Amino acid sequence: MIRSLEYESSEWNGTLKAMSAPLTPAQIRRSLQSSATRTAIVEAAHRLMLERGYVATSIGAIADEAGVAVQTIYNSIGNKADLLSAVLELASTRPDCPALVPDLLRQRVAGAVSAPEIIRILADWFALVHERTSSVFRVIGQAAAVDPDVAKLELRRAAGRLHNYGEAASALRARRGVRAGLSDHEVAAAIWAIGHPQVYQSFVNDLGWSVGAYREWLGNTLKATLS
After folding, report:
1. Distances (CA, A) of 69 to 37, 46, 72
2. 2-78 to CATH, choices 1.10.630.10, 3.55.40.20, 1.10.10.60, 1.10.10.10
3. What pLDDT digit, counting tens, does each position of 99-152 carry?
4. What distance lies between CA 125 and its chain's CA centroid?
């Protein structure tokens, strides 16, 4: 038993050393090529899904557009619903924004010194992100009606947003920005509903509001609802 434990420990230490060892030039090159291939696939999917719609865009068409084999898409990203999720991630970020979207919002809220500042951060955030992603959310909404995998994706995304807004609710309470009688769950639900992508689509895309008017409405409505 002692010899077995010593062997397992030695093997584990060897694995850790291998994991922490610097990458070779060949490994770095393969990693960069893999990342570039994935980006090309997601960008191709983004173009085609917005142009043709989700149903009319086949994996084969995306592969042709990206210049890769169909199996490469499945190996590097997954199925069609996984591709749509990656398209949403691509649309919500930008080259000078390397952090994940929820992480960046969390950092900004945590650094706010007052409740009004948090409200302003949320209003600016919703206006910025929805302006980038509204077309993709429209595709998701259409696809969810015909693809169970996308319906699950839509539900999972919605649940994730509600969870993330719980942190904003706690931050607002800590800065005396929540009126008596509201729980953090109710605050998170209000932020989720007011800042829902569909609200942006209805006001800005369908009814013709400017992004500035939408942002101002967001700030005023969040303040009136929560404080």
Report:
1. 11, 17, 5
2. 1.10.10.60
3. 456 777 888 888 899 999 999 999 999 999 999 899 999 999 999 999 999 999
4. 13
| Angle (CA) 106 110 113, round 5° | 145
Find how far residue 50's CA is from the centre of its chain. Answer: 18
pTM beyond 0.85: the answer is no
Question: Alpha helix (H) ranges present in 67-210?
Answer: 70-76, 80-92, 101-110, 115-144, 148-174, 184-194, 197-200
Flag residues of the chain having pLDDT under 50: 1-12, 15-16, 18-19, 28, 32, 96, 98-99
Domain ranges of the chain: 2-78, 101-226
What are phi and psi for residue 29, nearest 5 degrees? -65, -45
Q: Which fold has domain 101-226?
A: Tetracycline Repressor; domain 2 (1.10.357)
